[in-house]
Write a structure and sequence with these properties.
Helix content: under 10%
Order of helices and strands: EEEEEEEEEEEEE
Radius of gyration: 26 Å
Distance between the termini: 59 Å
Structural class: mainly beta
Strand content: over 45%
Strand order of the largest sheet: 5-11-10-7-8
């Protein structure tokens, strides 16, 4: 989809000998944003009935309309999920490394007013304000973390989508990733400082 794309997609049901349109969406309502978008319709009035469900497209600006990832089942109005997380297997001292997580809006309404939180060993260490997500859309959040000389061993990271409106919160926390601390083979000085003196530039540090 994108700017200038104005086809129409209808969800139709065959019941009691006739086809009925239960939902209709024009692709131009998605604006100029390219990529896949979610459209949905309710089958609640047909619970317990035998029906045929179809999708009808009406060409406007383009002859083709691409449809993928069909789902029939229970949905919710508001539902965020953390679907992926990635991080390096190890990182050195005083060098930033990235931890990225994908947030997916599985609900049928736009998601807003949420936070994305990074945890290290079950302690929150960073938070980002969530960006608005259209139904079916996803976004990647990347946190920068840095080990100090006080860190050792392996730390466990995870990401949580904190969303008060979420109706199905069980998938709001990612799986865990472990990032080891890469210990240098040589000793490392700490508290390194430089200052100007009558002798020029002098350095001061603490030995390990």
């Amino acid at each position: 989809m994108g700017e200038g794309y104005s086809n129409t997609v209808e969800l139709v049901v065959f019941h009691d000998g006739e086809w009925t349109t239960i939902a209709s969406v024009s692709t131009d309502t998605f604006g100029a944003q390219t990529g896949w978008h979610m459209a949905s319709g309710s089958l609640e009035e047909y619970i317990g009935e035998e029906i045929l469900v179809g999708i009808r497209t009406i060409a406007g600006s383009h002859m083709e309309t691409f449809i993928d990832d069909l789902y029939v089942g229970t949905t919710s109005g508001y539902d965020l999920a953390v679907t992926a997380i990635s991080a390096p297997s190890e990182a050195g001292y005083n060098k930033e490394f990235a931890i990225s997580a994908t947030i997916l809006n599985k609900g049928v309404n736009e998601a807003a007013d949420y936070s994305v939180i990074l945890f290290a060993d079950d302690e929150p260490v960073a938070t980002e304000t969530g960006r608005k997500l259209a139904p079916g859309a996803s976004d990647i959040y990347t946190f920068r973390h840095c080990y100090s000389a006080m860190d050792e061993g392996v730390k466990t990271f995870k990401v949580k989508a904190e969303y008060n409106a979420d109706e199905l919160p069980d998938d709001n926390i990612s799986s865990e990733v472990k990032v080891g601390v890469r210990i240098p083979s040589l000793p490392i000085v700490s508290s390194l400082q430089g200052y100007r003196s009558e002798n020029g530039i002098e350095l001061k540090w603490e030995t390990p």
